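FORM 12-B: Structure-to-Sequence Request
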C-alpha cells in the first residue's frame, strides 16, 4: 500500500503541475512590420504576382549553369570549415534543448552501498555488554527530486532553447548562403582576371608589331626617335601588367581554394566570362516574402522568440518554488535480509520556498530580460529593413550595370575602329605616331573596362539572388553529407568571346 501511495502522490503532483500551473510572461507575436508594397529599383513592368516563384526561390544549381562552378560549390558545401562549424553548432543547440527540457521531469537515481562501522569503547556513552562493537549496513536505495513547474519557468526555458535551436539552423543557412554567393563572386572575379590577362597578351603582340613598323620606318628615315620611344613605351607599359595580373590570379585561386576547404593551388575553369549565363528572367516577388526566405531575418526573429520566452523564465523566479523529494529502498545489516519486506525504508518530502528579500535582484532580472526583448524587436526590424535596402540596391545595380555594359560595348567598338584608322593614317604618313599612341591606349582601356562591367553585371545578379534570400535552397542536404573529395586538377581557361585584340 505504501508503494501505491507513493506512486499516487507523484502522479498527483505531476497532474497538478500540468493542469493548475500557468506560464508567466507574454506569448510570442510577430511585430507589425512596415513592409513596402514593392522594392525600390524594380522596373514598373516587372510582375508582382504573389503566387509566382521568386528569383530567390531558385536552388543554387539552377542559378549557376557553369558545371565547373557547380562542382566548386558542391565541394565547398561539403568541405568548407564555416559550414561544418555551423552544423556542429546546430547539434550543440539540439542537445541543449534536451538538457533544458529535462528540468520538466523528475530526476531519479538509484544506488547500492555497504558501510561497516566500529563504535569506540572510550566514548561518552558506555557500550552495553553483548552489543557488537562493529556493525554492518547494506542498502539498496533510489531517490527522486522534482521541482514542479507550476509557474512555467522550465516550459518557457524550453521555448527559448527551441528558438535558439531554430536560430542556429537559420544561422547555418546564412553561412551556406554567404558561401555560395561569395564563391560565385570569387569565381567570376577569377574569370575576369583571366580575360584581362588574355587582352593584355593580345595587346602586347599588337604593340610589338606596331613597334616593329616604327623601327622599320626609322631605319628608312621616315620616322623619328621620339616615335620609336613612344611605340616601345607602349610595349613596356602593357608587358608590366602581366606579372601584376598573374599575381592577382594566383591570389584569387587561393581564395577559392580556401572557400572550398582546400590548401592553396590551381583552380579549374569552365565557361569563359562572356559565356556565363544566370537565370535572369525570374520574377522578384513581394517584399513580404523576405520575412520567410532570408535566413538572417529568420535568425533575428528566432532571437526575438527566445528573448520573449526568457521574460517568462525571469518572472517565474518571483513565485514560490515547489519541489518534491523522495527516497526509498531497502536497508539491512545483513546482506541475506536486504531484499526483505521488513528491510523497506522510504521518505517523501514536499517543500516550498518563497523569495522574500533579495535586494531587488529578481525584479531587476525581469527588467533586464524585458530590455533584452525590446532590443531583439529592434534588431529584428533592423534586419528586415536592411533586407529591403540590400534588395533595392541589388535591383538598381542590376539595371544600371546593364546600361553601363551597353555604353561600354559601344565605346569598345568605336575605339576599335579608331585605332585601325589611326594606324592606316600613320602608315600613309598623314599623321604622327602620337595619334596612334592615344588610340591604342584608349582601345586597351576600353577592352578592360568592358570585361570589368561584364563581371559587375554578373556580380549584380549574384547579389540580387542573395538579397532575395537565395543560395541555401537545395544546399542543406549536400552540406550535411560530409567530405567527398577535392576539386579536380585545373584545365586551361577559355578566352572565347573576348573583345577583339588591337592587332586585328
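FORM 12-B RESPONSE
SEQUENCE OUT:
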Amino acid at each position: 500500500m505504501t508503494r501505491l501511495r507513493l506512486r499516487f502522490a507523484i502522479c498527483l503532483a505531476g497532474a497538478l503541475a500540468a493542469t493548475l500551473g500557468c506560464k508567466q510572461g507574454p506569448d510570442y507575436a510577430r511585430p507589425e512590420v512596415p513592409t513596402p508594397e514593392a522594392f525600390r529599383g524594380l522596373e514598373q513592368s516587372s510582375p508582382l504576382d504573389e503566387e509566382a516563384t521568386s528569383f530567390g526561390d531558385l536552388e543554387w544549381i539552377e542559378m549557376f549553369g557553369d558545371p565547373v562552378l557547380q562542382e566548386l560549390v558542391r565541394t565547398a558545401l561539403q568541405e568548407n570549415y564555416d559550414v561544418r562549424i555551423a552544423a556542429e553548432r546546430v547539434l550543440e543547440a539540439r542537445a541543449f534543448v534536451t538538457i533544458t527540457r529535462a528540468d520538466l521531469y523528475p530526476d531519479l537515481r538509484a544506488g547500492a552501498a555497504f558501510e561497516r562501522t566500529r563504535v569506540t569503547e572510550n566514548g561518552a556513552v558506555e557500550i552495553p555488554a553483548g552489543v557488537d562493537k562493529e556493525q554492518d549496513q547494506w542498502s539498496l536505495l533510489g531517490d527522486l527530486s522534482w521541482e514542479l513547474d507550476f509557474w512555467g519557468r522550465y516550459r518557457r526555458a524550453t521555448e527559448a532553447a527551441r528558438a535558439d535551436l531554430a536560430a542556429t539552423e537559420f544561422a547555418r543557412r546564412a553561412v551556406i548562403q554567404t558561401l555560395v554567393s561569395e564563391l560565385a563572386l570569387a569565381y567570376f572575379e577569377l574569370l575576369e582576371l583571366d580575360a584581362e590577362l588574355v587582352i593584355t597578351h593580345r595587346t602586347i603582340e599588337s604593340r610589338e608589331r606596331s613597334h616593329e613598323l616604327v623601327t622599320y620606318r626609322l631605319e628608312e628615315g621616315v620616322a623619328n626617335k621620339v616615335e620609336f620611344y613612344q611605340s616601345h613605351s607602349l610595349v613596356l607599359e602593357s608587358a608590366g601588367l602581366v606579372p601584376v595580373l598573374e599575381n592577382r590570379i594566383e591570389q584569387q585561386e587561393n581564395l577559392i581554394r580556401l572557400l572550398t576547404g582546400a590548401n592553396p593551388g590551381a583552380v579549374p575553369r569552365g565557361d569563359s566570362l562572356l559565356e556565363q549565363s544566370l537565370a535572369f528572367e525570374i520574377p522578384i516577388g513581394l517584399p513580404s516574402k523576405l520575412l520567410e526566405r532570408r535566413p538572417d531575418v529568420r535568425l533575428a526573429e528566432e532571437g526575438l522568440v527566445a528573448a520573449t520566452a526568457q521574460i517568462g523564465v525571469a518572472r517565474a523566479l518571483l513565485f514560490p518554488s515547489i519541489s518534491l523529494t523522495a527516497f526509498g529502498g531497502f536497508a539491512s545489516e545483513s546482506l541475506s535480509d536486504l531484499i526483505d519486506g521488513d528491510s523497506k525504508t522510504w521518505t517523501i518530502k514536499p517543500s516550498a520556498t518563497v523569495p522574500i528579500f533579495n535586494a531587488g535582484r529578481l525584479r531587476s532580472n525581469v527588467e533586464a530580460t524585458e530590455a533584452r526583448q525590446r532590443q531583439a524587436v529592434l534588431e529584428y526590424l533592423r534586419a528586415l529593413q536592411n533586407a529591403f535596402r540590400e534588395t533595392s540596391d541589388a535591383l538598381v545595380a542590376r539595371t544600371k550595370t546593364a546600361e553601363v555594359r551597353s555604353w561600354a560595348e559601344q565605346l569598345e567598338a568605336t575605339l576599335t575602329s579608331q585605332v585601325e584608322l589611326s594606324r592606316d593614317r600613320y602608315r600613309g604618313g598623314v599623321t604622327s605616331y602620337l595619334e596612334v599612341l592615344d588610340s591604342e591606349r584608349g582601345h586597351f582601356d576600353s577592352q578592360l573596362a568592358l570585361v570589368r562591367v561584364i563581371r559587375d553585371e554578373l556580380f549584380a545578379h549574384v547579389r540580387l539572388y542573395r538579397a532575395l534570400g537565395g543560395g541555401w535552397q537545395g544546399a542543406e542536404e549536400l552540406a550535411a553529407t560530409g567530405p567527398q573529395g577535392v576539386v579536380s586538377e585545373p584545365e586551361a581557361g577559355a578566352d572565347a568571346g573576348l573583345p577583339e585584340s588591337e592587332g586585328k
